[in-house]
Design goal:
By secondary structure, this protein is an all-beta fold. The protein has strands at 3-7, 10-13, 18-25, 33-39, 46-51, 57-59, 67-72, 77-82, 91-98, 107-108, 112-117. Strands 2, 4, 5, 6, 9, 10 and 11 form a seven-stranded mixed beta sheet that branches. The chain has a four-stranded antiparallel beta sheet with strand order 1-3-8-7, with no helix packed on it. Strand 5 (46-51) and strand 6 (57-59) form a beta hairpin. It is globular.
Length: 118
């Protein structure tokens, strides 16, 4: 059974940094594509960042240069380093996983709240 557990969210001020973690079990993060998404109140869930088994990365335009996705294969964990946080980054952040060659993500974590005050 695949489980993704996010942690690291919290309340910070604009300009601060946070690092989110996504600990995976039942699936090896080094051999799957892993992504981060977020959903703000009243808005649809949106893509934030992703990495694949080759360590290629992709970012939403709104976070490029501020967020970095990375992976620790030994810990089977994916991270999202978020710097220069803005109030508009406030959302519930979700980790997700998908099989190589498949476009949709099939496993999702429960989410972690990030709140950025101005």
């Amino acid at each position: 059974q695949v489980q993704l557990v996010e942690s690291g969210g919290g309340l910070v001020q604009a300009g601060d940094s946070l690092r989110l973690s996504c600990a995976a079990s039942g699936r090896t993060v080094s051999t799957y594509s892993m992504g981060w998404f977020r959903q703000a109140p009243g808005k649809e869930r949106e893509f934030v960042a992703a990495t694949n088994w080759r360590s290629d990365t992709d970012y939403a335009e709104s976070v490029k240069g501020r967020f970095t996705i990375s992976r620790d294969n030994a810990k089977n964990t994916v991270y999202l380093q978020m710097n220069s946080l803005k109030p508009e980054d406030t959302a519930v952040y979700y980790c997700a996983s998908r099989r190589i060659g498949v476009s949709s993500y099939d496993y999702w974590g429960q989410g972690t709240q990030v709140t950025v005050s101005s």
